[in-house]
Amino acid sequence: CPGKAGCRDLMRFDVIVIGLGLSGLMAAKTASEAGRRVLIVGKGIGSLGILSNTVDILGRASRDSLKEDVLAWIGDNPRHPYALAGWQGIEEALRSFVSLFPPPYDFSAPGGRNSLIPTGAGTRHPAYLVPATMLGGIDADWGKTLIVGFEGFKDFFAEYVAHHLKARGITIPLPRADQGGITATAIARLMEEPGFTGELAYGIKKRWAGEEAVGLPALLGVRSPAQVLREFESETKLKVFEIPILPPSIPGMRVFNRFKGHLLARGVRLLQGQAVVSVLREGRRIKGVTVYHAPLSRTFTCEACILATGRFLGGGLLADEEGIREPVFDLPLKKPSSRGGWFNKRFFSTSVHPLHFAGVMVNEKFQPVDGEGKPVFENLRAAGTILACHSSIEETSREGIEIASGYAAARRACEL
């Protein structure tokens, strides 16, 4: 709109969030609900489409009260992102997340503590917030449960899962498979086609041997999984639940889509599949970013910026022969002093590899700091797994860190 009044304002935002994973989405949601004009930009959807099925807070939590476990963890790990967010901030962030998922596809924490849910590896995974479609797997009577897989679908082996869970497993033909191929996304789309659940339920009932529940791979649609589950239960007259499987994560895509719809409805500008290629700096302040989407590049200005690009998996940190670096702002990092210190002597060591603690150090305002503890940029915050001093995979805390730090960083950026 060159020459038109107000054109410049279209490129100016109160807050720019870099990263479309869960921490970036939480930051954008929090800032927009505080009345700020928000731009969120990212190359993809982060680990949501790969790993996220539940919301994990702290896998080793064993007390009846999650609060007690987290406070004890904070006491032992005072630089952990949870310590910076504080228990009150963690609670507020979780409430904000849960508010985005009303019934019937809601997230809950049965008993207010971790639950063990079955996985596609035949193991039991400790999760805090569980989507409604997976609740049936928490207290299943495995001796009376049927695990169902699909012929041609290579990411879920029902007999293997059933063997480890002491259930019965079968693999059946997938109706209409020729319409979309045997991939996770194709099956999820088929699940929402009219009449498909009835056809699949018929194939299950032909192999039924008196079980009371059915466990299916987590593919019950992207848009309306709770409705698909209800249809299955109506057709089979059995309790039905989803089991998390290998990537891609259909439940993670559901979370992304719910956030995306909410943000767009609030007027947030969302640029997906686009990369930040340069940063405008003025002294110790970020003035804006330049975004590239072939063949065009555009510059957006801001009052505050939040970096939520993840670690190595999302490209938030890059590692090569020269070492580890943060590519957007070239921020100083907490990291092993040399490549020789990245890993322990034994790969399957009982202690966490030092590389897994690498990341951006921040202060209590979630501002990235240098080696002396001084903010690198006054109006920059960082959130999510790019933060240092945690090992989210080993801790089983990734979603919790992303939700809590994304919420806290946005509140600090908005001075709330």
Structure overview:
This protein is α/β, with parallel strands linked by helices. It contains 10 helices and 17 strands. The strands form 5 sheets. Strands 1, 2, 11, 12, 13, 14 and 17 form a 7-stranded mixed beta sheet that branches. Strands 8-7-9-10 form a 4-stranded parallel beta sheet, with helices on both faces. A two-stranded antiparallel sheet has the order 3-6. A hairpin with a 5-residue loop joins strand 4 and strand 5 (124-127). Helix 1 runs parallel beside helix 8, helix 1 runs parallel beside helix 10 and helix 3 packs across helix 10 (398-413).
Write the layout of secondary structure elements.
Layout: E1 12-18, H1 22-33, E2 38-42, H2 66-76, H3 81-99, E3 107-108, E4 115-118, E5 124-127, E6 130-131, E7 145-150, H4 158-165, E8 168-172, H5 184-191, H6 196-205, E9 213-217, H7 225-236, E10 239-243, H8 250-265, E11 269-272, E12 275-282, E13 285-293, E14 296-307, E15 318-320, E16 323-325, E17 380-382, H9 392-395, H10 398-413
Parallel strand pairs: 1-2, 1-14, 2-11, 7-8, 7-9, 9-10, 14-17
Antiparallel strand pairs: 3-6, 4-5, 12-13, 13-14, 15-16
Helix pairs in contact: 1-8, 1-10, 2-3, 3-10, 6-7
**Helicity level, as a percent range?**
25-40%
Unreliable stretches (pLDDT < 50, length at least 5) are: 1-8
Instruction: Give the biggest sheet.
Output: 7 strands, mixed
Question: End-to-end span in angstroms?
Answer: 34 Å
Radius of gyration: 23 Å
Q: Tell the overall outline.
A: globular
The SS-based structural class is alpha/beta
The number of helical runs is 10
Order of helices and strands: EHEHHEEEEEHEHHEHEHEEEEEEEHH
Report the mean per-residue pLDDT as an integer.
92
The percentage of residues in β strands lies in: 15-25%
The tally of beta strands, per DSSP, is 17
